[in-house]
Every structure is written in structure tokens, then in C-alpha cells.
Amino acid sequence: MRRFALQNNLAPQRPPRKRLPVRRWQTQKVGQLWQYDASPHRWFVGQDWQPSLLHLMDDHSRVIVAAKLYERETLLAHLDFLSQALQATGLPLCLYVDFHSFFFTHVPDNHTQLADSLRFYGVSLRFAPTPQAKGKIERGHQFWQKRFPALLAADAITTLAEANPLLDVLRRHHNTMEKHREIRCTPQAAWNLAKKESRWALRPTPACPWWPYVFSQRTRIRVGDDGRVAVGTQRLAVEAPPRSKVIHCQHPNGDVTVLQQEPEPEKMPVILLSTRLC
Questions:
Q1: How confident is the model over 17-42, as a mean pLDDT?
Q2: Strand bridging mode 52-58 / 64-70
Q3: What is the dihedral of CA 22, 28, 30, 33, to 10 degrees?
Q4: Measuring CA to CA, which residue among 21, 104, 103, 91 is closest to residue 58?
């Protein structure tokens, strides 16, 4: 009888079971862990190039701390992005990253330049064992890829300079207006509650004279016998002994600085040369 009733749509139908949100693991404090990743994508409709979206998310609150499009993923792009994000928000304890060569080196006890820059200010790296372990940030990429290209197309935006301000508007809207399925409140509400309840691991950004040099692409170079160093296509004089080694700093904004030594917390930077490449 039951089979006959089912075949003829006479049996009562069970309502579909509502899927309950799954609360995945998360850290206990804001700033304890920030998830960090890059997402190359065809953000501009009708264009073949794939700019990289650098994306930083607080693991506890799901607040998108920062997001910015760059022409491509480079060391200078990472240094520029992290410098701006840390200055604007503060210093987390740790970044959760993958095994990209920007973050990881196979040489024991060695660190990449980007990792060293973060370690200088007490920010460590934690490596995701699998791509699936970075589910939060990966779902964040889906959020951007579903929404942002349509917004760019609607406003006929085709350049990074125009796209990034709109990207920041969407980021703030997500943080303050959109209720997160897993934490059952907006990310900004979770962030504010954590601060109120002293579940807070963020540290203030220090007023450190080394900051612009730590977050630059640094190379050790040798002073020539003529007392000059190579900067781009030029050879410029510096006040350093011939054949001594100095530090060439390429800044994200195009400036070049030559320092007497690598950054050291107990010392002040000694600038031998500062210029801008043409």
C-alpha cells in the first residue's frame, strides 16, 4: 500500500530538512590568526589579463581586514599590501598561509624575505597542510569572484586605480551589513564583541623608523671602486668605503633607498642614498 501511495503521490511528503550551519574551528581572539591568500582571476569582463587579489581575513570574526587588486602577485605587491594593512589595523600574532615560495623556503632554519619582514615585528607564519585547510579564505575568494566582476562591469570600470576604491566599499559592506552563516552575526559585530570581552590579540603598530625599509625588497650590493652603486641604469655615489657591502631597498612606490646595514631593532637606519627610478 505504501509503495502504491508513493507512486501516485498520495503519501504525505516529509518537508526537506533544513541544513544547519556548521561552525568550523576558529581561533578564540581577534588577531590571533589572520588567513592570507592571493586570487588571480579575470576580474574585468571582456579582458584576458588576470590581476591578483590579495585578501586578508581575521579567523575569529571573519572580518575582511584588507583586500586589494595588483597587476600580478609579486614580492613588492605582498610587501605593499601587508604594510598598508598592518599600519591601518594593527599587528596580528600569526598569518595562515600556503607553501608558496614567497612564504616558505626548503632550506632548514632559513626564512624568506617576506617572512623575515613579518618576524621583525613579531608576526609569525603558520602553514596550511592542505588547500582544504584554508576553507575560510577560499570561500572568501568565491565571495569576491561572484560579486566584484559584476560591479566592475556595471560601472564600466577597467583599471586597477578605479577598481580598488570600489573593492574597499564592498569589503566594508560585507563586514558591517552581511550576517555570516557560521557565526550568526555580521563580521564587524563579532569583531566588536571580541574587543568588548577582551578576546583581543591585536597589537598596535609601532612607530618604528625601520618600517618603510623592512617592507621593501632588500638586496645586498657592493660599492664599486669608484665609490658608486648601481641604481637602475645609473651609478650613483654613496658615502661608503669602496668594495663595502650596503643594502639596496626597492620600495613599492618606486623609490630606492641605499642603507648602511640591514634593519636592526636596536639601531637607527643610516641612509646613504634616496632616489626614485625614472
A1: 78
A2: antiparallel
A3: -80
A4: 91
Task: Give the residue among 73, 63, 54, 5 at the shortest CA–CA distance from 34.
Answer: 63
What's the half-sphere exposure (Cβ side, CA atoms, 13 Å) at 260? 10
Contact 122, 91 (CB under 8 A): yes
* Domains along the chain with CATH numbers: 34-196 (3.30.420.10), 211-276 (no CATH)
Confidence (pTM): 0.87
CA atoms lying within 13 Å on the CB side of residue 195 = 8
Average pLDDT in the chain? 89
Q: What DSSP element (H or E) covers 40?
A: strand 34-40
Tell me the residue type at 134.
K
Strands 34-40 and 52-58: antiparallel
Cα–Cα distance for residue pair 58/32, rounded to 1 Å: 8
Interatomic CA distance for residues 192 and 103, integer angstroms: 30
Reported as a single tens digit per residue, the pLDDT across 235-265 is 999 999 999 999 999 999 999 999 999 999 9
Report the DSSP pairing between strands 234-237 and 245-250: unpaired
- How does strand 64-70 pair with strand 94-97? unpaired
Element (H, E) at 248: strand 245-250
Contacts of residue 143, defined as CB under 8 A and 6 or more positions apart, other chains included, come to: 174
- pLDDT tens column, 41-74: 999 988 889 999 999 999 999 999 999 999 999 9
